[in-house]
């Protein structure tokens, strides 16, 4: 995820898009065999035999027909999954997406040049905005080098969705609208929207063909802040974006009906480069405890962030930063790559602006004022109430584990990501006395418009290892052997998933064909082990490696009795965010993190003695 930026690039950002291979369809036999292997840790022998018979019938009967239809679909599309995934995973969902779908997280700047400090919010925001605008310009001019895994080119299409992108609510299904264009494609919106105290302001970030400098951006931000100081808060229309999707769609239609000017304001927000939120909160996080700023990023004031926007940059009153982003148009690695770029630029300049202090004459920000009536105010009040009830139920912890990191793990010839995943399996096993069905993100960007595949870390080998670790009589040698088997299985499954040979998206495709054709739902999808093992979005542990950079994110759990677990791996530290619902009597994010710490120490000790 490093940002290779060339002044005179030999490769343009999007130049390989048309030569990427299509997303393959795995073999039916292979997918069903992998599925059976994945459900085994959650089944008694009797349950497993029942499921094995269901899978055999499926493979020899309806599954064969569905698979043929899927192959037919793949012949006419370079990515047979793309449209389905967007609809099924995001756009057709009706629950509130701001907390259940969006990802948020802390900016890493507080670890070096920008520790929490009062009185610098606007100055820092102007510098951070300037670097973000430079990144937009790199994408516009295609000077960001295409990403590669070794020599394999990766799909860059999602980077088109970072700026000028928004989700629009629909009564039964949402849509995504994207206004971004590269320079060669034509003009692109260049205004930003700033939200403060429930009010909206907009200004152009480009003047006479040049991006505004930090002193110029500071002037615009200062004007916004001055307009809001000592004044009553605005109507907080943004809170509507946190509402259940159909309710929000209806409220949005009503807004447009009462005054067509409201439609123009909505379009201004939707097409903006990104939203800047000037927040009065002071989360005061540290490099060891990111919890306050992570919680604020995920669950902060709904009246000063647009939940459907692809990028809300959150600026807090203590000089710290965060982000909150709609997950539908892109996966977290896009934002991680952008935030890491800003982080590296800030580090290189010690967080200062060293250029011209001149402020050119330009129009001041324009306030965007919605026409509202009692019904709109009532809709906003309802949205805020349900948002606060839900966010108060979310437990968020985010800590740095500083005993060791990537360097020590690699020194022992182990894969750092697999190390964390197995430590998490052991932590959950120790805390709950059983295994947790687990989803880990596998990236499929080596294929055209590839996004993700599910990798299931809760393997039979992981189960055997966890069991062995808790056996008082087990020798260190037995524990090591079990650990290495679990490592090898995990690494094999991850490599297969990244190479288009996972099985979860394949099964989803077969399920959706049956659904679209109005066929009776095959037994495979109604079998109890399907959901018990995580199928149909029922994973107890929803996890993702955010990368080996300084950037972290967080998500809510996928199910009520589950956890959201994101982590980043540095040379000498591992930083993890963990979320759980307080109303679930089973879960405790704080306890899971502490159990993770114990597991990490045990595993390193095991790997160290193995080397002696």
Fold blueprint:
Layout: H1 28-39, H2 45-60, H3 62-76, H4 82-91, H5 97-100, E1 103-106, H6 121-140, E2 148-149, E3 152-153, E4 165-168, E5 175-178, E6 191-196, E7 199-204, E8 206-207, E9 210-211, H7 214-228, H8 245-258, H9 260-271, E10 275-279, H10 291-299, E11 312-316, E12 321-325, H11 332-349, E13 366-368, H12 374-391, E14 394-401, H13 406-411, H14 416-432, E15 438-443, E16 452-455, H15 460-469, H16 476-498, H17 504-516, H18 523-526, H19 528-532, E17 541-547, E18 563-569, E19 574-581, H20 589-611
Parallel strand pairs: 6-10, 10-11, 15-17, 17-18
Antiparallel strand pairs: 1-12, 2-3, 4-5, 6-7, 7-13, 8-9, 11-12, 14-19, 15-16, 18-19
Helix pairs in contact: 1-2, 3-17, 6-7, 6-11, 8-9, 14-15, 14-20, 15-16
EC number: 2.3.1.137
Enzyme class: transferase
GO biological process, one term: fatty acid beta-oxidation
Helix content: 40-55%
- Radius of gyration from the alpha-carbon trace, in angstroms: 25 Å
Tell me about the largest β-sheet.
Answer: 7 strands, mixed
Parts with pLDDT < 50 across at least 5 consecutive residues: none
Subcellular location: Peroxisome
EC number: 2.3.1.137
Main location: other
InterPro entries: Carn_acyl_trans (IPR000542), Carn_acyl_trans_N (IPR042572), CAT-like_dom_sf (IPR023213), Cho/carn_acyl_trans (IPR039551), Cho/carn_acyl_trans_2 (IPR042231)
Features:
612 residues, alpha+beta, 7-stranded mixed β-sheet, 6-stranded mixed β-sheet, 20 helices, 15% strand, transferase
Concise structural overview:
It is built from 20 helices and 19 strands. The chain is of the alpha+beta class and 612 residues long.
């Amino acid at each position: 995820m490093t940002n290779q930026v060339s002044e005179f690039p030999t490769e343009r950002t999007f130049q390989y898009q048309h030569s990427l291979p299509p997303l393959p369809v795995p073999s039916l036999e292979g997918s069903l065999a992998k599925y059976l292997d994945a459900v085994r840790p959650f089944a008694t022998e009797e349950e497993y035999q029942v499921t094995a018979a269901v899978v055999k019938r499926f493979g020899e009967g309806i599954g064969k027909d569905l698979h043929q239809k899927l192959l037919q679909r793949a012949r006419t599309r370079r990515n047979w999954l793309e449209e389905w995934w967007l609809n099924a995973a995001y756009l057709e969902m009706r629950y509130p997406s701001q907390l259940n779908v969006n990802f948020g997280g802390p900016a890493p700047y507080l670890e070096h040049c920008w520790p929490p400090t009062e009185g610098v919010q606007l100055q820092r925001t102007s510098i951070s905005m300037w670097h973000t605008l430079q990144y937009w310009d790199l994408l516009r001019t295609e000077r960001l080098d295409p990403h590669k895994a070794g020599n394999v080119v990766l799909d860059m299409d999602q980077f088109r969705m970072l700026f000028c992108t928004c989700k629009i609510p629909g009564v039964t299904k949402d849509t995504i609208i994207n206004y971004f264009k590269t320079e060669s494609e034509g003009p692109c919106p260049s205004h930003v929207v700033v939200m403060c105290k429930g009010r909206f302001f907009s200004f152009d970030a480009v003047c006479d063909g040049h991006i505004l400098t930090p002193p110029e951006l500071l002037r615009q931000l200062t004007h916004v802040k001055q307009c809001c100081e000592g004044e009553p808060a605005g109507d907080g229309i943004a809170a509507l974006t946190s509402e259940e999707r159909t309710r929000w769609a209806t409220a949005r239609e009503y807004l447009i009906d009462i005054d067509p000017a409201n439609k123009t304001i909505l379009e201004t927000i939707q097409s903006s480069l990104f939203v800047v939120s000037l927040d009065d909160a002071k989360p005061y996080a540290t490099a060891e405890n990111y919890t306050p700023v992570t919680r604020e990023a995920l669950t902060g004031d709904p009246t000063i962030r647009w939940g459907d926007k692809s990028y809300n940059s959150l600026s807090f009153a203590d000089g710290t930063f965060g982000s909150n982003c709609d997950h539908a148009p892109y996966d977290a690695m896009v934002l991680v790559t952008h935030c890491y770029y800003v982080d590296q630029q800030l580090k290189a300049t010690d967080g200062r602006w060293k250029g011209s202090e001149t402020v050119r004459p330009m129009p001041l920000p324009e306030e965007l004022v919605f026409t509202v009536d009692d019904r709109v105010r009532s809709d906003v009040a309802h949205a805020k109430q349900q948002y606060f009830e839900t966010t108060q139920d979310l437990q968020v912890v985010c800590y740095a584990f500083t005993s060791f990191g990537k360097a020590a793990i690699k020194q022992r010839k182990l894969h750092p990501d697999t190390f964390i995943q197995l430590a998490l399996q052991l932590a959950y096993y120790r805390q709950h006395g059983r295994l947790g069905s687990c989803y880990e993100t596998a990236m499929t960007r080596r294929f055209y418009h590839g996004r993700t595949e599910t990798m299931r870390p809760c393997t039979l080998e992981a189960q055997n290892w966890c069991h062995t670790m808790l056996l008082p009589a087990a020798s260190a040698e037995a524990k090591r052997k079990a650990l290495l088997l679990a490592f090898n299985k995990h690494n094999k499954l991850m490599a297969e998933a990244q190479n288009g040979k996972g099985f979860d998206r394949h099964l989803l495709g077969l399920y959706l064909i049956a659904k679209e054709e109005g066929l009776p739902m095959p037994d495979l999808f109604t079998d109890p082990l399907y959901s018990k093992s995580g199928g149909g979005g029922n994973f107890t542990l929803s996890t993702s490696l955010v990368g080996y950079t300084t950037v972290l994110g967080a998500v809510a759990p996928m199910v009520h009795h589950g956890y959201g677990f994101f982590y980043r791996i540095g040379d000498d530290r591992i930083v993890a965010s963990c979320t759980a619902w307080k109303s679930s009597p089973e879960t405790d994010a704080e306890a899971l993190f502490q159990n993770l710490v114990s597991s990490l120490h045990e595993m390193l000790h095991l790997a160290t003695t193995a080397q002696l």
